[in-house]
């Protein structure tokens, strides 16, 4: 169509991997870092941990992105994830204040804090994963039996999650991985702690030691201006309401955002994705013309 184009890059000798998925390419909002302006934001891509021999985005694509100097890329650590895409732990939402945005990070620590709060309130037997799924129409719970090895999805309570030492150790590791990225993002995007919001999330390690979401990952939301399409987490029901959904609303609605929780377990989450993996949003382009900017 008019004023629309694309670039196709295909490696001749390298095999592509899940880090070449475009959930592994994000762009920050416009930022100013140490006196340097990035009016179109900065490209964010996931990679292996520095000095390790893990998975990386195909060099052909990496080189192409690094050539876009106006949006100078920031390389993050995402190889700890099974899919390895940065949109599994970071996203951005708009605000109307001076900063104009907030960065959202997945946070196992925030989830454990919330669950301990509910346990102290006497809600320890609140059950997760309640609801009817659509897979074959036979499962009473949204997750098929045995979806996570060693997990009885028919009766997962706050008490069971908090007493699971292996799950706790795995999420401590995940939190360290996310905290490493947090420090990089704060430095490379010029952010303060007040610019970051931690969203409750839990992960579980697969047989290869890579992280997969324990419940639908709310960070992988669809951002439609002030409306957010958020994967429905099917968290513990306390006082008749999912405590995860309530916490997300408490964090985001004061910013003028509207939260809509979308069921995506059968369609996407069961294949290690979320609703964002099968949708696209047509964005209004910046009035700012990047070719007028000297990096």
Automatic annotation (TrEMBL):
Domain Protein-arginine deiminase C-terminal positions: 1-292
The protein, known as: PADI2 deiminase
A Pfam family recorded for this sequence: PAD
GO molecular function, one term: calcium ion binding
PANTHER family registered for this protein in UniProt: PEPTIDYLARGININE DEIMINASE (PTHR10837), PROTEIN-ARGININE DEIMINASE TYPE-2 (PTHR10837:SF12)
Domain of life: Eukaryota
A single cellular component GO annotation: nucleus
Regions crossing the membrane: none
């Amino acid at each position: 169509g008019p004023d629309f184009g694309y670039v196709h890059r295909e490696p001749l000798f390298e095999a592509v991997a899940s880090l070449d998925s475009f959930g592994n390419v994000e762009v920050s909002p416009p930022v100013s870092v140490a006196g340097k302006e990035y009016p179109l934001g900065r490209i964010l891509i996931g990679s292996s941990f520095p000095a390790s021999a893990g998975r990386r985005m195909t060099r052909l694509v990496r080189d192409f992105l690094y050539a876009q100097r106006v949006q100078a890329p920031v390389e993050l650590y995402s190889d700890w994830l099974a899919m390895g895409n940065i949109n599994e732990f970071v996203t951005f939402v708009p605000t109307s204040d001076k900063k104009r945005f907030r960065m959202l990070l997945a946070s196992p620590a925030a989830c454990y804090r919330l669950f301990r709060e509910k346990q102290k309130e006497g809600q320890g037997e609140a059950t997760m994963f309640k609801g009817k799924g659509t897979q074959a129409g036979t499962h009473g719970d949204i997750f098929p039996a045995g979806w996570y090895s060693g997990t009885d999805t028919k009766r997962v309570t706050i008490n069971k999650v908090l007493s699971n030492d292996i799950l706790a150790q795995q999420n401590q590791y995940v939190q360290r991985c996310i905290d490493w990225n947090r420090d990089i993002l704060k430095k490379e995007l010029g952010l303060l702690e007040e610019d970051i919001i931690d969203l409750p999330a839990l992960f579980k390690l697969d047989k290869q030691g890579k992280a997969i979401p324990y419940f639908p990952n709310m960070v992988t939301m669809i951002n439609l201006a002030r409306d957010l399409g958020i994967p429905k987490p099917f968290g513990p029901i306390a006082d008749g309401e999912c405590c995860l959904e309530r916490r997300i609303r408490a964090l985001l609605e004061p910013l003028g955002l509207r939260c809509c929780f979308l069921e995506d377990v059968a369609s996407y989450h069961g294949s290690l994705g979320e609703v964002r993996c099968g949708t696209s949003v047509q964005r209004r382009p910046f009035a700012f013309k990047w070719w007028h900017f000297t990096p």
